[in-house]
Amino acid sequence: MQAITINILGPVTLPDFPREFHDTMTKFGVFRAFIAGSWIDFGSYMPVKSPINGEVIAQVNKLSAEHVNSAIERLHYSWPSLRAIPAHKRADMLMKVADFIEEYRQLFRDVLVIEGGKPISEAEGEVDSTITRLRMIHQDLGRLLNVGIPGEYGVGTENKYAIVVREPIGVVAAIAPFNYPLFTSMVKIATALLAGDPVIFKPSSYTPITGVLIAKAIEYAGLGNYFAMVTGPGAIVGDAMVTHPLVRAITLTGSTETGLRVMRMAGLKRLQLELGGKAPAIVLEDADLRDAAKKIVTGSLRLSGQRCDAISRVIAMDSIADELINYITKEVSEWVVGDPRDPKVRVGPLIDSNAVERVHSMVDDALMKGGRLIYGGGYWLTYHEPTVIDHVSRKSRLALEETFGPVIPIIRVKSVDEAIEVANEVIYGLDAAVFGRDVGTLWRVARSLEVGEVTINDFPRHGLGLFPFGGVKESGFGREGIGFSVEDVTELKTIVITYK
């Protein structure tokens, strides 16, 4: 494998921020933290680098554990006043967040491109999806409705009636990833605020400026007193958040390693964890191979494969593998890799050079264990070329570990049962895809897969959350989605009334 050449389109700088955003930064251009309605400079900073060229583009505040503890206490004291706002009014206030993001749509888009390395079309899609999801927030209110249970159906409770009330749980810690720093963060935050919970939010250290924009949107909507945006190393800021006794629930999207660490520290807090994935795409003998190839490539290469629901292994029947690979290779060749500011580019950089080195080492391991390079394999700094490898060993890292890169490994099998066995032999269980025509076989495979969601004849995508999603095994637990996310940031209280 050899280095590839990437044309960087001039200096990499953040867009100009409108005057309305000037309170988010110091006179020296350092982005402040946001604590319960106030923009604060704590005097210690850390750099933010763009994955486009690895250069520093900004400085953000680097908070200490003491700063985080103080923020949590302020949010806890604000909780009664947030609970006093009727839920429908909280929903209306969150609609203003959507209005704000729409007004500054281009700014949000450009920040996603510069600090996250997203291709322009991907960044636009994330901004628009966030706006749409927020404008659907009233649909979540249905899960907050009380339930009545008459006691006449039980012995000894004939003269009783129970009202089951769903109440806010308290301060929620929201920890977000770098890959969807706007959408994923905003859904976690909006769900908790809708339920009546104050939120302390830690954006990824790779994409903290998006977190600053989110805080500004929350402030604009009138919910700033119930929200904090804190930046700094996960081992300091994140640990302080998940161990503080006043934090009652934690919602995290991140790696399995991070999730296990949070579980060990969190104690009896409510947890919603969406962790790593290793989504298989099982291609059966009767599949439409041209259609399957197109969807597999899209599901593998979007966001350079840096998605927890990305297809990261193709399990193909040996009888159709050669034809499938021909279609896949043709599709991959149409995905341009390069500077994400170029509208023609569909595969931008990985988040940093360490990510490229890790992906490259996984590719090397697969080739050493008998894999055959079909396409790509080149890399440079933060960029990795879309790569297709055939005859990947089930024992290789590429078959077993989360890839988070633009690599399509092909694992050949002889039977449907072997395909199911291969799919289930990893520690992850988030998503899977199955391509075929026979309904009986598709149903059997779907029911046999140890994952939280199976997509038939398409690639996995969580989208707006209309369908609940989440993992099993070491991909986490809890479910996110419209009407489902609120369950993990609320508690049930049963009130029993005796009327005779």
Automatic annotation (TrEMBL):
The active site is at 274. The keyword Zinc-finger does not apply. Keywords: Oxidoreductase. One of its GO terms (molecular function) is lactaldehyde dehydrogenase (NAD+) activity. Pfam families: Aldedh. It comes from the Archaea. Residues 45-495 form the Aldehyde dehydrogenase domain. InterPro entries: Ald_DH/histidinol_DH, Ald_DH_C, Ald_DH_CS_GLU, Ald_DH_N, Aldehyde_DH_dom, ALDH-related_metabolic_enz. The keyword Oxidoreductase applies. PANTHER family: ALDEHYDE DEHYDROGENASE. Belongs to the aldehyde dehydrogenase family. This is Aldehyde Dehydrogenase.
